[in-house]
């Protein structure tokens, strides 16, 4: 039986297009499972605490300013004077601000899905330099100052895991829920019952904050000079925000990172004043830095990346079949092409289903081995030779090995993929370099040997 070569090309192309239907369905399953995992992460965060961001501490001095204004009686036209009271607040940012945090991670499971939580033990310290009379240069008798307080913004106060006490100079003060400042959002505050502290050269503070959160921890460097040092047992940090660490070390046991900002580099005081007095808080809220505790390549990311190579993988396998046809003068039926293609497609379904229960590496080995054995057994009859089947299976195993290396690579996937494709093209050209394509316009089916 003879078939035109062009018809064979068209048939293989149609089969590849048809196989993209089950591949697309499997890809939908992967995205659905990924979405389910993300929903579980959000549910666990909702029942525990979300990502955390620290803003502050800020020293706040409430006041009442009394002024006299002249009014005119509309009936008698007589001028008289009244006293008007205006409420306000003075804000002072730390002259020095430091955070020393140690982050420990843990996994929480719900069914087959997991979420990563962290517990950050933060030692926060610094000092305020307050000017004489709080910087008021007008007549002091016109001002009545209320008890000052120190406010701190914490994005999700549900994550606070210890009873908070702040040391202000030599006094230990209990902190209360609520930042009392809308611009800081949720948080805590501590009222200073001895305001005479503020007339000294510096107001020193120290606070230990144990905080639970999910995924990320960030800090707004609100001090004139800020220093934040974070250390964690998580080996895959992603540093984020407006400032990168000035020093960092990452290894298999975790990471350490150090940030430093100054009054000149951050311009936080001006941003804070815009937020406090003009209600323009976008710049202040964007001036942060921190770390995102990411899973660089999880099973869903790897499976999604793997299925993106499905078209190429099937095409290369069919190209191998076609090489056997033209080099060994064999004829492979389109149904046989299709069955091998379906086996290749089911590899991805096996991979995602197994990787949800066992390690991805082991799931990949089991799934690829099952496909290689099944296809190897089948093609031993299609190619009429066990030796040819062994060669074909070895080539298929090499493709799976190359695919795994692409999935594991974070930064070199494109480079490795380009090199792989170029090498495979070179192999195909070498094997067919002496082939007279005009002579294979028709492929004769050989007898089974």
Describe the overall structure.
The protein has helices spanning 5-47, 263-266, 268-278, 282-286, 299-307, 310-327, 334-355, 360-382, 386-408, 413-431; strands at residues 2-4, 52-72, 79-92, 96-110, 113-128, 143-145, 149-154, 165-168, 171-174, 176-177, 187-191, 203-214, 216-220, 225-232, 237-241, 247-251, 254-262, 289-293, 442-444. By secondary structure, it is of the alpha+beta class. It has two domains: 2-38 and 299-444, no CATH class; 51-293. Strands 2, 3, 6, 7, 10, 11, 13, 15 and 18 form a nine-stranded mixed beta sheet that branches. Strands 9-8-12-5-4-14-17-16 form an eight-stranded mixed beta sheet. A two-stranded antiparallel ribbon has the order 1-19. A hairpin with a 2-residue loop joins strand 16 (247-251) and strand 17 (254-262). Helix 5 (299-307) runs antiparallel to helix 7 (334-355), helix 7 packs antiparallel against helix 8 and helix 9 (386-408) runs antiparallel to helix 10. The longest helix has 43 residues, at 5-47. The two termini are 17 Å apart. The model is unreliable at 442-449 (pLDDT under 50).
Element order, helices and strands? Answer: EHEEEEEEEEEEEEEEEEHHHEHHHHHHE
Radius of gyration, Cα only, in angstroms? 34 Å
Indicate the proportion of strand residues.
25-35%
Number of strands: 19
User: Which descriptor suits the 3D outline?
Assistant: elongated
Helix content: 25-40%
- Structurally, how many domains make up the residues? 2
- Mean pLDDT across residues: 80
Major β-sheet profile = 9 strands, mixed
- Our count of helices gives 10
Content-based structural category: alpha+beta
Amino-to-carboxy terminus distance: 17 Å
Question: Low-confidence parts, pLDDT < 50 over ≥5 residues?
Answer: 442-449
């Amino acid at each position: 039986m003879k078939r035109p070569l062009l018809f064979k090309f068209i048939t293989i192309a149609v089969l590849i297009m048809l196989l993209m239907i089950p591949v697309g369905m499997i890809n939908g399953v992967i995205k659905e499972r990924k979405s389910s995992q993300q929903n579980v992460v959000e549910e666990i965060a909702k029942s525990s605490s979300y990502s955390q961001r620290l803003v502050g501490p800020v020293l706040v001095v409430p006041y009442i300013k009394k002024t006299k204004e002249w009014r005119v009686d509309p009936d008698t036209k007589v001028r008289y004077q009244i006293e008007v009271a205006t409420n306000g607040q003075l804000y002072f940012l730390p002259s020095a601000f430091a955070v020393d945090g140690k982050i420990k991670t843990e996994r929480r499971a719900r069914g087959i899905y997991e979420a990563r939580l962290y517990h950050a033990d933060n030692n926060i310290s610094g000092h305020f330099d307050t000017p004489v009379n709080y910087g008021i240069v007008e007549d002091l008798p016109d001002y009545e100052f209320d008890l000052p307080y120190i406010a701190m913004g914490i994005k999700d106060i549900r994550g606070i895991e210890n009873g908070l006490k702040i040391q202000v100079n030599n006094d230990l003060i209990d902190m209360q829920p609520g930042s009392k400042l809308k611009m800081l959002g949720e948080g805590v505050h501590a009222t200073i019952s001895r305001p005479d502290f503020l007339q000294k050269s510096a107001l020193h503070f120290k606070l230990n904050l144990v905080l639970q959160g999910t995924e990320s921890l960030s800090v707004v460097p609100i001090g004139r000079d800020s220093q934040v040092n974070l250390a964690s047992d998580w080996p895959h940090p992603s540093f984020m925000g407006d400032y990168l660490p000035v020093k960092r070390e990452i290894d298999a046991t975790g990471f350490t990172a150090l940030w430093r900002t100054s009054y000149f580099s951050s311009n936080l005081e001006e941003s804070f004043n815009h937020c406090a007095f003009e209600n323009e808080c976008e710049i202040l809220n964007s001036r942060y830095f921190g770390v995102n505790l990411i899973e660089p390549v999880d099973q869903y990311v790897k499976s999604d990346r793997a299925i993106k190579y499905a078209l190429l993988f099937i095409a290369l396998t069919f190209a191998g079949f076609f090489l056997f046809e033209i080099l060994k003068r064999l004829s492979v039926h389109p149904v046989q092409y299709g069955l091998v293609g379906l086996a290749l497609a089911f590899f991805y379904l096996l991979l995602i289903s197994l990787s949800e229960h066992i390690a991805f590496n082991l799931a990949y080995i089991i799934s690829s081995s099952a496909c290689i054995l099944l296809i190897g057994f089948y093609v031993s009859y299609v190619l009429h030779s066990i030796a040819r089947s062994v060669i074909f299976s070895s080539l298929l195993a090499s493709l799976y090995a190359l695919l795994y290396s692409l999935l594991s690579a974070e930064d070199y996937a494109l480079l490795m993929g380009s090199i792989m494709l170029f090498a495979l093209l070179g192999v195909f050209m070498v094997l067919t370099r002496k082939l007279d394509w005009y002579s294979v316009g028709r492929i004769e089916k050989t007898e089974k040997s």
